[in-house]
Amino acid sequence: MVEIAEIAVSAAELKLGTEPVEAAGVRVSLADGKVRYSMRARDPAVLEGVLGRSLPRKIGDTDAGIACLGPDEWYVVLPDNFDLPRGEGLPVSVVDVSSRALGLVLEGPGALAVLSSGCPLDLAKMSVDRATRTVFETVEIVVWREAEDRWHVEVWRSFATWLWHAFVAAMHGSAK
Amino acid sequence: MSGFRLADGGRIDRRTKRNFTFDGKARWGYAGDSLASALLAQGQMLFGRSFKYHRPRGILGAGVEEPNALVTVDRGPGRVTPNLRAPSVALHDGLKATSQNRFPTLKTDLIAVNNVFSAFFPAGFYNKTFMWPRAAWEKVYEPIIRRLAGLGDSPTTRDPDHYDATYAHCETLVVGAGPAGIAAALEAAANGGRVFLIDEQEEIGGGALSDPAQWAWLAEASAKLAAMDNVTVLSRTTAIGHYHQNFVVAAERLTDHLPVDGAHGPREKLWRIRAGEVVLAMGAIERPLVFEGNDVPGVMLASAAKTFALRYGVAVGRKVVVMAVHDSGWRDALALHAVGVPIAAIVDIRRDVAADLIEGARAARIACYQGYAVTGVSGGQAVNGVTIALAGVGKGQKLECDAMLMAGGWTPTVHLWSHAKGTLRWDENWGAFLPDKTHENLRCVGACAGDWDFGKGLSVGLLPAPKPLHESKAFVDFQNDVKARDIGLAVQEGFRSIEHIKRYTTNGMATDQGKTSNLNGLQIASGVLSRPVTEIGLTTFRPPYTPQSFGAMLGHHKEALFQPLRKTAIDDWAADHDAVYENVAQWRRARYFPQGSEDMNAAVARECRTVRSAVGVFDASTLGKIEVVGPDAAEFLNRMYTNPWKSLEPGRCRYGLLLGEHGFIIDDGVSARLAPDRFHLTTTTGGAARVLNMMEDYLQTEWSDLDVWLTSTTEQWSVIAVQGPKARRVIAPLVEGIDLSPEAFPHMSVREGHICGVETRLFRVSFTGELGFEVNVPAEHGRMVWEAIWAEGQKHGAVAYGTETMHVLRAEKGFIIVGQDTDGTVTPDDAGLGWAVGKKKPDFVGKRSLARPDIVAPGRKQLVGLLTDDPQAVLEEGAQIVADPNQPVPMKMIGHVTSSYHSATLGRSIAMALVAGGRDRMGETLHIPMPGGVISAKVVAPMFYDAEGSRLNG
Amino acid sequence: MLLIHCPYCEEARPEVEFVYGGEAHIARPVDPSTYSDAEWEKLLYIRNNPRGRHHERWRHTHGCGRFFNAVRDTVTDVFETTYKAGEPRR
Fold first, then answer.
1. Contacts for B329-333: CB closer than 8 Å, 24+ residues apart
2. How many CA atoms lie within 13 A of B862 on its CB side?
3. Mean pLDDT of B345-360
4. CA B619/CA B226 separation, integer angstroms
């Protein structure tokens, strides 16, 4: 039995955790610095030409840091200091969104339960190395299953504090 | 005192005593007891007062169908729960329960006088009586009615508990863990899929818990389920409702069964379960019989008495009479007799009853009265006898007893089936509606499917009686105090549909949703109308199946987690500098920065003056931003916005006005062309998501041939507005790679370079009318750059200003705020923004509508400025405007105030307003009637400061 | 909560990922200026409200982001089919 920590009455009091929190077989932490790009193209081959590498073609597939989120949309999450060509003048869109989101990492045997507390997808059936945009309660996220028990969750910066505390609340909630 | 604890038997633990209080008196029971069984064991027959007449009431059922025995459980401050059903409250040490709806005490209820005058409280009484005068409702009728007719008191203090919530997925969900549900779960589990088995009771077993012969099987099956990895068994979990495509919501009660000091963690957990197949095994609920006196404490369902005896080891009486119209009543009587509950007689309206039942009763020396009906019950707060008569109309004969059981047949529990829009069919044998067809992957098993052997019986509802219906005091709905004669009256007054009869009489509208009353009410209506029940129909079941706490519905969404509060990267700095905040959409924004004892007016006046005389810094990060990229970017924007975009040079900005196809303004913002194929758009704070969605809509569905893509960059960039004559001097030392000179960097242009060592998109724009810049930097650097600008600004007397000052400054310049000065019915011309509409453009979104007759008609409301005759009078935003304040009420309103402030710069108030034919009224005096008197104001152009725009250049 | 089959993701996804987009197959004319006031009013404001089959738009906003069309029974809420934007009416 885990006692639930007092949660602030006012949302204004919430702070983004910088230290990982562990409970109930789950660890939530902030992902290291990342560069992020949103890439769009009607014809993936054109974008592949710009990037000089292949792209995952099926929605939900990932390949070396690139996730296919839509029929014409790819999301890139890579370690720091990685600049992509913009493909000026070509029918593609490459936009640096490194600062737009933060990455929260859920690890451990209880991670699935914490994520399922607010995400309506049947995540148990999501294969490792798949990624998708979805929601956690009312907040849009991108879920990336990096390993059986490791989930990388991308969330827009201003929602990250709420999401962090929602995860922590769920960790304690599932700790029965 | 009539009930008592049997010498042995039941699933209670007789070695473990539980102490509790009821209405403040110390009581005790055993581990495994419910509150109802423990109290019954001590002879308590009176549990509550009825809703309308305050009649004494006892236990009717042993499960969630219980309509009478509602209690309030007090678990400490903020943890008081009213309207719990005593049979469903698990006993624990220290339980504090109180009865409800009694005044002042349960035994002596002064308001029971209602009962004496009950003839004056017929169906529709409230609707008919408390009609007039209207004012009396609020002051007289309503408070009195609430005092008289109430359930428990709502909690008034903050609920300190936490509530958990989750989604879950399974191939098979079984609702109800009686024998049929357990069998279905075992069968499904054998196929390997994920199985959920949920049940509302303290332990699984359902009806088997009241049948010791099944306990060995139950233990074995429970162990088997527990050992299977793919099975999740949830007891104390109520399936609240079935929603589309087998989405079932259930609430699990985690701690209410524990002593207060032993309860840790969340109180409840909301399960949102998506199932491939749902199996409903929700059983059936026994029906009461409707006869004079059927609500006297001690009159209860036969099945309930059986559960109390066999599951809890409690006899409901020392001399019990059974009134049956169904074999199950005989069976229950024999089962009760077998464990030592003295059964004096079985009365059955039927003359023909199965020989084995009669044989069994005779062997048990139980008197049998076939062809008889109970016609009356004696006793006030407890039964002391019943009157029976042949066929209900013969000569009355009195039988002594201290408890009376009703066996009126069974109603399958089809609530969730009905939530799923499953159809029902009337089954003559059951005398009840059974599940028929559904488009969901959903099926019923066991008793709720009609597949259970309760024996045979009649479906009568109302017993034959010597009195005519309109004189009868036979109750149909115990919780809402609806009598059979109320239904008769409703029909007499012209109600035909069961939905109308339900609402007029309130039959089935109590917290139990008519679990014991719906079918009896229907059959009585059918009898009075002389039409078959199938023609009268059934009322609709809706979630929740049983009342649920608000906490469970909210889950984690309470207090700080109620909804996300979005903060910018600079928000913490503002907090450190004593900002007062306001919420804008989900964002919180600094509204003003008071110094010392300043109030808002003083702080805003100082901030405004400083921006106009020196410089101010403002966090504009919440502005919506969209990056538009691709060869067709300019073409796309040209089609979306009212003004031309193709000619915009890279490095230049333009004010964009966005209309809906209906021609009304829905958003605006300044946008920049960064490169031939790349634009940086801004939108209003609240419109960011809506605008992106609208643009995606056009791009995907109307102009899918365009090679252009949209990316939200709202959160990528922190935006720091530096505004005022000294703005350039503040940023100059920090900026690298951008020539800030007026010639190289004119108003309405954009440059890319660096500030404080990080990349920036530097806009020269102004929402204040002053020389201004908006510094865009990646959000992760927002705080650092803000602090550097702030430090530099201190050398020039800079202030940080908030949204209130931003509003005043822009209003002084007549700049609109979409959503404040517009309301979804304002065209560009109405807003005085006709200049922003490209006259030569053949098409753009909304253009065709600008030529519609109503849009070009004269007299439309137009945006104007207002200057009050009294310069210190600040109009109220939203206030209505009239031309003639002396006209009789209701006055003709010709417009309303949209923005209004005190302007420190001008030393007077200013306002903007939408006024019919406003631009033709320049110089006219209009009037704003307010509670304190009429305020007069002159119509002027909505431009109060620096009309020639000279200040843009510093 | 509905489960909606997204024709782009090719899987059924929970309703909260989607946003309803009104009646389907109402195309914006290439040149709206050729529309009479009555025709334009009809295009803007007049919609079908059938009991039964309804052609409607949805957007998988919190998924792949695409608009698509669906046929839903307004009585049972059962989706008969979903198909990509631009495909003919079903």
1. B329/B302, B329/B405, B329/B406, B329/B407, B329/B457, B330/B354, B330/B357, B330/B360, B330/B361, B330/B407, B330/B455, B331/B357, B331/B455, B332/B302, B332/B303, B332/B305, B332/B306, B332/B405, B332/B407, B333/B302, B333/B361, B333/B366, B333/B405
2. 21
3. 96
4. 57
C75: distance to nearest CA of chain A, Å?
25
Predicted local confidence at residue B447, as pLDDT: 96
Nearest one of B485, B478, B487 to B512, comparing CA atoms: B478
Beta strands in B677-757 (DSSP E): 678-683, 709-712, 717-723, 735-736, 749-755
What's the rounded mean pLDDT across residues B721-736? 98
Chain centroid to Cα B115, Å, comes to 35
Q: What pairing do the DSSP bridges indicate for beta strands B424-427 and B320-324?
A: unpaired
**Three-state DSSP state, B674:** strand
CB contact under 8 A, C28 and B847: no
Judge: A140–C62 Cβ closer than 8 Å, yes or no: yes
DSSP bridge pairs for B559: none
Contacts 24+ apart (CB under 8 A), C26-30: C27/B702, C28/B661, C28/B698, C28/B702
ipTM of the complex: 0.98
Residue B747 near residue B655, CB atoms below 8 Å: no
Does A88 sit within 8 Å of B675, measured CB to CB?
yes
Please, what's the b/e burial string for B545-571 (b: 16 or more CB within 10 A of its CB; e: otherwise)?
A: bbbbbebbbbbbbbbbbeebbbbbbbb
Q: How far, in Å, are B148, B297, B511 from residue B51 at the CA level?
A: 8, 15, 11
Residue B137 confidence class, pLDDT cut points 50, 70, 90: low
Alpha helix ranges (H) inside B624-753? 633-640, 688-697, 727-731
3-state secondary structure A89-136: CCCEEEEECCCCEEEEEEECCCHHHHHHCCCCCCHHHCCCCEEEEEEE
Q: Is B588 on the interface with A (CB under 8 A)?
A: yes
Contact call for A120 and B167, based on CB within 8 A: yes
Residue A79's CB: how many other CB atoms inside 10 A? Answer: 10
C-alpha atoms less than 13 angstroms from C-alpha of B872 in its C-beta half-sphere = 1
- Residue B422: per-residue pLDDT: 95
> What does the mean pLDDT of chain A come to?
92
pTM: 0.93
Chain B residues whose CB is inside 8 A of the C2 CB are 244-245
What length does chain B have? Answer: 954
- Looking at the DSSP bridge assignments, the partners of residue B252 are B237, B269
pLDDT tens-digit map of B865-917:
999 999 999 999 999 999 999 999 999 999 999 999 999 999 999 999 999 99
Rounded to the nearest 10°, the torsion over CA B460, B465, B470, B476 is -40
Contact C8 A120 (CB under 8 A): no
Please give the full DSSP string across B909-932, using - where no structure is assigned.
EEEEEEEETGGGGTT-EEEEEETT
pLDDT at position B120: 57
Which 188-217 residues of chain B touch chain A by CB within 8 A? none
Phi, psi of B57 (to 5 degrees): -135, 150
Interface test mutation site (partner C, options B240, B270, B694, B848, max chain C beta carbons within 10 A): B848
pLDDT of residue B469: 86
Give the separation between CA B32 and CA B34, rounded to whole angstroms: 7
Give every CB contact of residue A8 below 8 A, 6+ residues apart in sequence: A14, B559, B560
In angstroms, rounded to a whole number, what is the distance separating the alpha carbons of residues B840 and B15?
93
pLDDT digits (tens, 9 = 90+) for C17-49: 999 999 999 999 999 999 999 999 999 999 999
Smallest CA–CA distance, residue B523 to chain A, in Å, is: 43
CB within 8 A of B672, min separation 6: which ones?
B651, B652, B653, B654, B679, B680, B749, B750, B761, B763
